[in-house]
Amino acid sequence: MPEVYVAAGSNIEPRANLARAVDELRRAFPGVRFSPWYENHAAGFSGDDFVNLVAGFTTEASLAEILRQLHAIETLCGRPRDAARWAPRSMDLDVLLYGDLVCDEASVKLPRPDLLKRAYMLGPLAVLAPQVMHPTAGATIGELWRRFDQAAHPLRPLPA
After folding, report:
1. CATH code for the domain of 23
2. What is the pTM of this model?
């Protein structure tokens, strides 16, 4: 069964929306684990700070089924399917890794291309799964995080 890692983030009522997403992820994927929560500046647009985390779980579900469930959770958290890409959002759930699957299709790219560019994805993933090998970078997530320019992209841990 593949190990799946999903980034979750919100900058509209972020704590409430992430709490709801965490509850829904627990229902959808028993045994799901979560990184600590982090606050960081919006990336790609001007807006309120985001709160982000990464979830990890093992599943027999197909990638298509996981994406369907993640979209349903986003909707429950108030995100319309036609939400603008670089704008404030109540919930954003993105598959970062699906086992060692490498996929470059119009609808989905894995591993997530911006995983190695975004502290709010890579940092929480490195806490949750430092020994996981990135399928194309040839290094563990922990090593990739150590190489990352963390000072240029600060994450502020939030109390549990």
Report:
1. 3.30.70.560
2. 0.95
